[in-house]
Design goal:
Blueprint (H helix, E strand, L loop, with lengths): L4 E7 L3 E8 L4 E8 L11 E2 L1 H20 L6 E8 L5 E3 L9 E2 L8 H11 L1 H8 L8 H11 L1 H6 L2 E3 L3 H8 L3 E2 L1 H4 L6 E2 L4 E2 L3 H4 L7 E2 L6 E4 L2 H7 L6 E3 L2 E2 H8 L8 E5 L3 E7 L9 E4 L6 E6 L4 H11 L1 H8 L5 H9 L10 E3 L17 E3 L7 H25 L6 E5 L6 H11 L2 E5 L5 H12 L6 H7 L2 E5 L3 H27 L1
Parallel strand pairs: 1-5, 5-14, 5-15, 9-12, 16-22, 22-23
Antiparallel strand pairs: 1-2, 2-3, 4-7, 6-8, 10-11, 13-14, 16-17, 17-19, 18-19, 20-21, 23-24
């Protein structure tokens, strides 16, 4: 049957999305299914791979093909991404033995992280990997299961990362891409991009996936069993896939040297693309999703998830009105913050409600609403929260500048870009211009584009760049930028002066 479509599927923190395009990348249909984060106790963040991923996958495929009245045999290739880490332990039949452990918002492995850095040594870690091991990395998460759930570890035949579980279910082959595997410290030999000598500290290397040469390598085809399970056609090409942020960057045309992306999701994530591979201990570094390129990355722990918490806990009246057919609760809530001046009249929010990733690398950091008085309103708290996230973004942007990647103009993507207020606050705090693409579907669109690269229906990164049209350009108000300087300093001081108390709590 004649091929017509490219399929992209992405698993995010709180929902899964799918995109169907034609063979040159024009969007034909999109679909989304919501799921939650499983948190049995503070510091734990998990997904059920079968319920949250595979069931979502089946539903999305059905919806997409239904929208275009298409046939599964017409799909030329499939690309898949998921949230980072998503460390999944499976048996010989690729059946999960426990829930998948998510990225840096899961901080259970602090003890294992410290143990790895102690055994290998801080200097040697920085020499070998350019960074210390953190709760973001895969090794400590594996070690936690090994130490706390030995019966699970003993039964494990394969460990999958990020999209690797889903691609293994589809093809029967276990792979991880070079972009995702950069977080597999300390098992990875960063110089050769193969499994290294520190594997023995964590797990047998034979249970780790094969490292693919490229994010968009075709690693196999859909098996008969997977076709019956998902609704795809047997024999459909499947690419290696990657992590959501990498796929989202591709969707926004961040595919060339000097391009920088800021992703507003449940968390914030940053990618700066470079041609040179150099060490910088304050940023993560990896091979990029586009062949032959490298990138620096950074991430914050609580951004969009903080605005959701504020909506659910402080604006139930607006949520109920939305449920009754009224205005979107976020839109109504953010409007209350529109008239609040820069600095929120002395109110500062530390957004560390799930610890913090970059630049603090402190899983024990705590959220704070500081400076409240009786004149402050709900609008002040919302405005200050958006500013608090903005102050954290500014700190991360400084890390990129220190690494030689200037970010005067960044491509902004993700659900948070729906709020022009939030974008303006961040531009004012950071002194940067942000451009928002016309198509803001996200990672699932990038997955489809990379599937097109793999089967050569899309000619190259330049063709992806030509697909991207810009919807909004947000420039900084330099008067507000100057006002924010003192607040940025106080924001940093609040953490430094209170972190000991945070850790005791």
């Amino acid at each position: 049957m004649l091929k017509k479509y490219l399929l992209g599927f992405d698993v995010g923190t709180s929902e899964s999305k799918g995109t169907l395009t034609n063979l040159t990348g024009k969007v034909l249909a999109t679909a989304a299914v919501k799921h939650g984060v499983i948190s049995m106790q503070p510091g734990f963040a998990e997904h059920d791979p079968m319920k949250d991923w595979m069931e979502d996958f089946r539903k999305v495929i059905c919806s997409l093909l239904g929208q275009v009245r298409g046939n599964a045999e017409e799909i030329a290739a499939v690309g898949i991404s998921t949230i980072m880490a998503a460390v999944t332990f499976v048996d010989e039949n690729c059946e999960p033995l426990r829930n998948a452990i998510l990225y840096g918002i899961d901080t259970r492995c602090v003890k294992q992280t410290e143990e790895i850095n102690r055994i290998i040594g801080r200097e040697r870690m920085e020499e070998e990997f350019g960074t210390l091991c953190t709760v973001e990395h895969f090794g400590p998460k594996i070690l936690w299961v090994k130490e706390n759930e030995p019966e699970i570890f003993a039964r494990t035949k394969h460990i999958t990362f990020a999209s690797g579980f889903l691609t293994a279910r589809l093809t029967g082959k276990y792979f991880v891409d070079k972009y995702s595997v950069s977080s597999a410290l300390p098992m990875l030999d960063a110089k050769t991009m193969q499994w290294g000598r520190f594997c023995d500290l964590i797990c047998p290397r034979e249970i780790l996936p094969q490292i693919a040469e490229s994010t968009y390598s075709v690693i196999g085809t859909v098996t008969r069993q997977a076709a019956e399970e998902t609704g795809l056609a047997e024999g459909t090409a499947v690419i290696c896939g990657t992590t959501d942020a990498g796929a989202e960057a591709v969707s926004a045309g961040v595919v060339q040297q000097g391009d920088t992306m800021l992703m507003y999701g449940s968390t914030a994530f940053f990618i700066g693309v470079t041609e040179k591979k150099t060490d910088h201990t304050k940023l993560w570094h990896c091979d990029y999703t586009i062949d032959w390129l490298h990138c620096y990355t950074a991430g914050m722990a609580t951004t969009g998830s903080l605005t959701r918490w504020l909506r659910d806990e402080m604006a139930l009246d607006l949520v109920k009105k939305e449920e009754a057919g009224g205005e979107n609760a976020y839109t109504a809530l953010f409007r209350e913050a529109e008239e609040i001046p820069a600095g929120s009249e002395g109110l500062i929010v530390l957004p560390y409600f799930q610890g913090e990733r970059m630049p603090l690398q402190d899983p024990k950091a705590k959220g704070m609403i500081f400076g409240l008085n009786l004149r402050h309103t709900r609008g002040h708290v919302i405005h200050a929260a958006l500013e608090g996230i903005g102050y954290g973004i500014a700190q991360n942007m400084q890390l990129f500048a220190d690494a030689g990647i200037p970010a005067d103009c960044v491509t902004a993507v993700g659900g948070g870009t729906k709020s022009l207020l939030w974008l303006q606050i961040v531009s004012d705090i950071c002194g940067i211009t942000q451009q928002v693409p016309e198509i803001t579907i996200g990672a699932s669109y990038g997955d489809a584009l990379m599937a097109g690269l793999a089967v050569e229906t899309i000619e190259g990164p330049e063709a992806i760049k030509r697909l991207v049209q810009i919807r909004h350009v947000i420039k900084p108000d330099m008067e507000n930028f100057r006002k924010y300087q003192k607040y940025k300093e106080m924001f940093a001081q609040l953490y430094e002066r209170n972190k000991d108390i945070m850790h005791k709590l």
